[in-house]
Design goal:
Blueprint lengths: L14 H28 L3 H47 L1 H14 L4 H11 L3 H11 L10 H14 L4
Helix pairs in contact: 1-2, 1-6, 2-3, 2-5, 2-6, 3-4
């Protein structure tokens, strides 16, 4: 058996997680330290500074997690709105959508004949055509329906991860 013919590419598949962790940790590193530094010049009691720092970490984690949640929900809403618009355009502005599809194929170097054939083939199935237009015309991939919750948890936890 010739095993060298099988090629498996290694790509980063968790860029959303990485983005969330960077957002959470960058804020979690700066804000509590800035608060502690500011208070240390104004208050002589270290107990007050520690309590204020803990309160800030709790509040900051919640606020940042909420921001991640809302961003995820907004991404889902945006996708749904554009999906509805694309279905409308395929149903009611078909000639324009055919032209846009052919332009995509022209831009990737297909001949006029292949542009026609590829467009006719993809236009046979409305759902696949709309999915194609969402991805290649608008640059939108269907968001994970659990993304908002995952993002909230990832960012919120990353915010506090440095303060065990």
């Amino acid at each position: 058996m010739d095993t060298h013919l099988h090629h498996e590419e290694q790509h980063l598949k968790s860029s959303d997680l990485l983005t969330d962790v960077v957002i959470g940790m960058s804020d979690g590193l700066t804000v509590p330290f800035a608060l502690a530094a500011g208070l240390s010049g104004a208050v002589s009691s270290t107990g007050i500074i520690v309590i204020a720092g803990i309160a800030e970490i709790c509040a900051g984690s919640i606020a940042m997690g909420l921001g991640g949640y809302l961003a995820g929900k907004t991404e889902q809403d945006h996708y749904k709105t554009e999906l509805q618009r694309e279905f409308y355009e395929v149903d009611n502005l078909r000639d324009r959508e055919v032209t846009e599809t052919k332009e995509f194929f022209a831009n990737i170097g297909l001949s006029e004949e292949l542009q026609e054939k590829a467009t006719a083939e993809i236009a046979k199935d409305k759902k696949h055509w709309v999915d194609f237009m969402m991805k290649y015309e608008l640059g939108l991939n269907k968001p994970d329906p659990r993304r908002a919750t995952k993002s909230a948890m990832n960012i919120g936890i990353s915010y506090i991860v440095l303060f065990p």
